[in-house]
Design brief:
By secondary structure, the protein is an all-alpha fold. The chain has one domain. It has helices spanning 3-18, 22-41, 45-55, 60-77, 80-90, 96-113, 118-131, 137-147, 158-163, 169-172, 189-209, 219-222, 234-240, 248-253, 256-277, 283-298, 301-311, 316-334, 337-342, 344-348, 354-366, 372-390, 396-416, 425-432, 441-444, 448-464. Helix 5 crosses helix 7 (118-131), helix 6 (96-113) runs antiparallel to helix 7 and helix 7 (118-131) packs antiparallel against helix 8 (137-147).
Length: 467
Amino acid sequence: MSLLTRIGEKFTDVFKRTMPDAFVFALVLTLLTALSAYLIMGTKPMDIISSWYDGFWNLLTFGMQMVLLIITGYSIALSPIAKRGADGLASIIKTPKQVYYFIVVFGMLMSMVSWSWIVIAAFLARELAERVKGVHYPYLIACVYFSMISWVSGLSSSIPLLLNTDGNYMITGGILEKVIPTSFTLGSTMNFAMIGLFLVLGPLLMFLLAPEDANQKELSDLLDDKNTVDSMTIKEEADSFKFPTPTLSDTLNNSMILQYLIALMGFSYIIYYFNTKGFDLNLNIMIFVFLILGLTLHQTPMRYTISMKRASSNISGILYQFPFYAGIMGIMKGTGLGKELGQVIGQYATAETYPIFAYIIGGVVNFAIPSGGGEFAVIGPSIVEAVNNIGAGASEAELTAMHARASLSIAYGESLTNLLQPFFLLLVIPVMAAGIRIQARDIMGYLVLPFVLFFLIQILMVFLLPV
């Protein structure tokens, strides 16, 4: 066993002994945030609790989008054509280390298109784990979750897209005079260097950290019950509901014509959407694409219903944990705690060090507000205002570059600390942990060393590289 592997196993052992369940993590974080608001801001306890309650409902739409994203995508993964595709891929990728390397590369690329596409990597990883012997399954989940950090440099990176939106709240609030083009952010030297870091070092690092053997942690070893894998195919289960003689209900339940007519309506709108709006990937259109594609691949209403039932078996974590994270966000925003943390950069940063402060603050606040766009709404205005003061006297182009650099630094810090924050693991777990006993503490330890290494490299990059 290599030194890196031993270190990874040691961190995992520490996490198993010390890290609570993801829900307990959210509860502890709630109390810590409330206590911080009381001690730092002097907010009255009932005002803190009221802010917590007011924020509780702010992620209901987002939570429902996450549920639909998972189950519609998982339904596609349960289709016969997806199974055949996984079989073909498994004939090429034959060893556990090849699986880890491939999944990290694939997950990084998917996440650069849209952060929500990490579910596609999760589906594929599980399928490969069922076919390739010797895959250490908790480590494979860690590989999938690790690969999500690349989203911040890609097409769905929320902060650069916001800054390039006409009439955004930074402009209407008088903090910025005009939009910041993506050529200063996503198209910058710094961002292209970050993409190179993700795609070159990321897969290599997870390849080197990989456990030497599965150690009784293959997917088949972790199943709660060896019979939890459905014994019938979806088609066989659909056929089992039919009456012995033909009936109208069976005709409708198993009608390909009915299903394909609805799918045709859906594809018509998808084509119209991308023709009129370009490559605008948001959660709603992604869910709709997954939904219509699933209808098509499963062919009949009954088969699709069964696939959705199977895909929905492990989504409870999102349903009850998202409101608690929304409550934490409510405390940060309602008490002014988030804004106060953002103002630290104005008190202590200089023209040379402000990217480092922005990076660290972005990472710290992410524990309480694990959403790039949501976090920037809370701390972004005060940080950009501080940059305005630091850059007083600079030319318009120089100040725009400073704004872009600070904003990217926040985004990179926010993305990296997701490796220690299990919020978005709730997007991966329903797919990869269905039918098995596994918790965040079984996974997160493998991410400590990647976090430390990437932290050291990224903080140097935001400090030294131009935009």
